[in-house]
Design a protein that fits this description.
The protein has 123 residues and is mostly beta strands. The protein is built from 1 helix and 12 strands. It folds into 2 domains: 49 residues, no CATH class; 68 residues. The strands form 2 sheets. Strands 4-5-3-2-1-6 form a 6-stranded antiparallel β-sheet, with no helix packed on it. Strands 10-11-9-8-7-12 form a 6-stranded antiparallel β-sheet, with no helix packed on it. Strand 2 and strand 3 form a beta hairpin. It is elongated.
Length: 123
């Protein structure tokens, strides 16, 4: 995340000193992309307040980190990574086992509760 021309935008910093920025709402100077976001490639020096966000939520009373959101027919879906420590519960809920102790799920956004965003300090 960061600020560009006074607007809060999603930021992907590139190694060449550029950044790809995007917004879910219209921002003057950005173009509508095929994914339905407003975006552009800019000089990274034009950004201020660059930081990461950690988004967490509960699904069926279990804690998850939201790692991706995407458009699906009829709404928004999210990709979740289980951040609880109860392997038996994760397996009983039939979460996708990605690795030892790593479980994920894809659900509709409206199924989540207690969503919280925390701004992470830059390194």
């Amino acid at each position: 995340m960061g600020t560009w021309n006074g607007n809060s935008v999603m930021v992907d910093l590139l190694e060449n000193g550029k950044a790809v920025i995007a917004s879910t709402s219209e921002v003057r100077g950005l173009k509508l992309t095929e994914r339905g976001l407003w975006g552009a490639a800019i000089d990274a020096r034009d950004l201020t307040d660059v930081h990461a966000m950690k988004l967490t939520a509960n699904w069926w009373g279990m804690p998850f980190q939201v790692v991706r959101r995407f458009q699906v027919e009829g709404g928004i879906a999210v990709r979740l990574v289980y951040i609880g420590r109860d392997v038996r519960l994760a397996e009983a809920q039939r979460l996708e086992k990605m690795d030892a102790g790593v479980y994920e799920a894809t659900v509709r956004r409206e199924e989540l509760s207690d969503m919280q965003a925390v701004q992470l300090s830059p390194a």
